[in-house]
Design a protein that fits this description.
The chain has 363 residues and is an alpha+beta fold. The protein has two domains: 232 residues, Naphthalene 1,2-dioxygenase Alpha Subunit, Chain A, domain 1 (Alpha-Beta Complex), CATH 3.90.380.10; 93 residues, Rieske [2Fe-2S] iron-sulphur domain (Rieske Iron-sulfur Protein), CATH 2.102.10. It has nine helices and 20 strands. The strands form five sheets. It has an eight-stranded mixed sheet. Strands 5-4-3-6 form a four-stranded antiparallel sheet, with no helix packed on it. A three-stranded antiparallel sheet has the order 2-11-10, with no helix packed on it. Helix 5 crosses helix 8. 37% of the residues are buried. Bound molecules: FE2/S2 (inorganic) cluster and fe (ii) ion. Its EC number is 1.14.13.-. GO terms for molecular function: dioxygenase activity. Keywords: 2Fe-2S, Dioxygenase, Iron, Iron-sulfur, Metal-binding, Oxidoreductase. It comes from Sporosarcina koreensis.
Length: 363
């Protein structure tokens, strides 16, 4: 078995790890929501979804309804998708194109810049007192065609939050050609952090992911910890193919797997230009929703090539193998047998993650 090399590109050493009760305690999740998720950047989409004036899509970020919209003035904005009259969720559709947004409760309408257009149940003098009622903005930044929002108005800018991550991302030249192709979700019975732990090491790959270790050169596999993110990956073995296509001739001749604090993963698989995001959204302390979004050069699944389909099958196989593992792990987290893991040298990216959680929770 080849042992993965972990390089530390930060100037810090990581030593502390979490105890298992942090994976089974609803109070810990409450703190994580407040001290982690409400303050960090969340990926909500890709600029290809809102290229034209009036185009929008809606999202949910930590239970907050959000709408991202390109105004009729071409400016991209993010708002809470909540009507300022009496809080009704404003836009129900997942995506669309509109010049005016209308609330279905009392018919208030809003311009694409979030300003109130009409409040039909307020007339005469009353009208003056609601004229400033507008959609509340959300912090948003776009980098490398990816749209992120942050619920904390005072958060550090996205561009300063992840070290040199976006420089690294810009090396994938196909990124701006990609479109959001497909999104799927899966609920599983495990704490969200268990999946992050699982993702941050590949010692389990030899045991759990036969197709993965058969495709990637595990002797060359590296894990690198950086500022608020880490990444890992390797090149493909010689003569590896999806169907008829030699992966060594592909646009991506290796796998690159990024993790961004706290719960976002971006994966690039061998094959044609591609990206997938994985977000681990906590539902409760022992239930998580995995959101998988695929990006290829086409905007729907029925247009993708056989090679792209093979890539998806490959990625999905690896993912379901992982979900099974973390569900088994959650059973052990609840046991009285042990309350702390042991971490090898090649599991050091997990230790970085643990240290960050402990720090954020002020533990
Ligand atoms: S709640 Fe939206 S118009 Fe009344
Ligand atoms: Fe895995």
């Amino acid at each position: 078995m080849a042992y993965n090399k972990v390089q530390n590109a930060t100037n810090r050493t990581f030593e502390r790890t979490m105890t298992y009760d942090m994976y089974t305690d609803p109070k810990v999740l409450e703190k994580e929501r407040e001290l982690i998720f409400d303050k960090t950047w969340h990926l909500v989409g890709h600029v290809s979804q809102v290229e034209k004036a009036g185009q929008f899509f809606t999202a949910e970020v930590m239970n907050e309804p959000i709408i991202i919209m390109r105004g009729t003035d071409e400016v991209l904005r993010a708002f809470y998708n909540v009507c300022p009259h009496r809080a009704t969720k404003l836009e129900k559709n997942e995506f669309g194109k509109k010049k005016i947004l209308q609330c279905m409760y009392h018919g208030w309408t809003f311009k694409t810049d979030g300003k109130l257009n009409k409040a039909p149940n307020f007339r005469g003098e009353e009208e003056a007192c609601v004229k400033d009622a507008c959609l509340r903005s959300v912090r948003m930044e776009v980098l490398e065609s990816l749209i992120f929002v942050n619920l904390d108005d005072d958060a550090k800018p996205l561009s300063e939050s992840y070290g040199d991550f976006f420089d690294r991302l810009s090396k994938f030249e196909f990124l701006s050609d990609l479109k959001r192709t497909h999104r799927k979700t899966r609920i599983f019975k495990s704490n969200w952090k268990a999946f992050i732990d699982n993702y941050l090491e590949c010692d389990h790959c030899h045991v759990a992911h036969p197709s993965f270790v058969d495709t990637l050169d595990m002797d060359d596999y590296q894990i690198i910890t950086c500022e608020n993110y880490s990444f890992q990956g390797s090149i493909v073995k010689p003569d590896k193919q999806y169907g008829e296509v030699d992966l060594n001739e592909s646009e991506m001749q290796g796998g690159s797997f990024f993790w961004l604090w706290p719960n976002l993963m971006l994966t690039f698989y061998p094959g044609p230009g591609n990206m997938a995001s994985i977000e681990m959204i906590p539902i409760d302390h022992e239930t998580t929703m995995a959101v998988y979004t695929y990006y290829f050069r086409e905007d729907s699944l029925d247009k993708i090539s056989q090679e792209e389909k093979d890539l998806m099958t490959f990625a999905e196989q690896v993912r379901s193998e992982d979900i099974e593992l973390v569900e088994l792990e959650q059973i052990g987290f609840r046991s009285r047998a042990f309350n702390r893991g042991r971490f090898s040298q090649s599991e050091q990216a997990i230790v970085q993650f643990h240290e960050m959680v402990l720090e954020a929770l002020d533990e």
